[in-house]
Amino acid sequence: MTLQTAMESAIKSGEKAFVPYIMAGDGGLSILRETILRLQHLGVTAIEVGIPFTDPVADGPTIEKAGERALANGVNLRNVLAALKEFAHEVKIPLVAMTYLNPILAYGAAAFAQDAYEAGIRGLIVPDMPLEESSIIHTELSEKEISLIQLVSLTSPTERIAKLAAASEGFIYAVTVNGITGARSVFSNDLAPHFANLKSYSALPVLAGFGISTPEQVEAFGSFSDGVIVGSKIVDALAHNDWETIESLVKASKHAEVN
Ligand SMILES: O=P(O)(O)OC[C@@H](O)[C@@H](O)c1c[nH]c2ccccc12
């Protein structure tokens, strides 16, 4: 099943998509299986798996620190993919890898696509790779049906939005704030028209991400998007073994008003 199909069937069943982001190797790679299976059991649509990186330019303090802890545990792209592969047969939902470009190029695009596929990766986010450069890895990804997801920012001019929306695969990642990842309490109040505009450029699901950290925000964003991605709040809750918080966020996506 492709990422787009999985997202669409989750949304069609009358719910909004909910995609938690986790930092692979925060707490050690040995807990990765349990974390992923437990999130799957809660009913999440997909899981964004972050690969720790030494220079995470898009990341705010919560994710940056989780990355540092994972790096201190000796975690890298290769051992994350190897760890995922061991229990891939138990994972029924798509995984989306979030990694910067350098580790992929060092791995080799074809070898990466092969190993990522075997690890259950069906989508990829590469925040430091502009659309214009995606040909360096796109063919290899397509051969394995790994969707390359594009991020659309609030400040993208109309022409750029149209281009990114047309090129995106799996879903469109609509970044809801200007700046880096991390929980926020205030959002711009003209996000609804921005999302409506995005939907007009593509038939793909549009997911909102960046800054979302409460059940109320999950519901609010669900009212004008196809679902949400929650990173920093999940990373923080996992670090404190606070599954109650995680459950309340997932539940909110099931209440979100369906448009
Ligand atoms: O942490 P937040 O504010 O909830 O935002 C999601 C985000 O963490 C996750 O999708 C992500 C983590 N690192 C990234 C880098 C680029 C784009 C997206 C991401």
Please name the defining characteristics of this protein.
single chain, nine-stranded parallel beta sheet, binds indole-3-glycerol phosphate, amino-acid biosynthesis, lyase, aromatic amino acid biosynthesis, RibuloseP-bd_barrel
Mean pLDDT: 94
CATH architecture grouping = Alpha-Beta Barrel
Number of helices: 12
In the predicted model, the low-confidence regions spanning at least 5 consecutive residues are none
- The count of strands amounts to 9
Rg over CA atoms: 17 Å
- The sequence of SSEs as H and E is HEHEHHEHHEHEEHEHEHEHH
State the CATH class.
Answer: Alpha Beta
Helix percentage: 40-55%
CATH superfamily: Aldolase class I
Total tally of structural domains:
1
* CATH topology grouping: TIM Barrel
Q: So what's the overall shape?
A: globular
Beta-strand percent range: 5-15%
Task: Tell me the structural class.
Answer: alpha/beta
Distance between the termini: 25 Å
Main sheet properties:
9 strands, parallel
Cofactors and ligands present? Answer: indole-3-glycerol phosphate
Keywords: Amino-acid biosynthesis, Aromatic amino acid biosynthesis, Lyase, Tryptophan biosynthesis
GO molecular function: tryptophan synthase activity
Protein name: Tryptophan synthase alpha chain
Active site: 48, 59
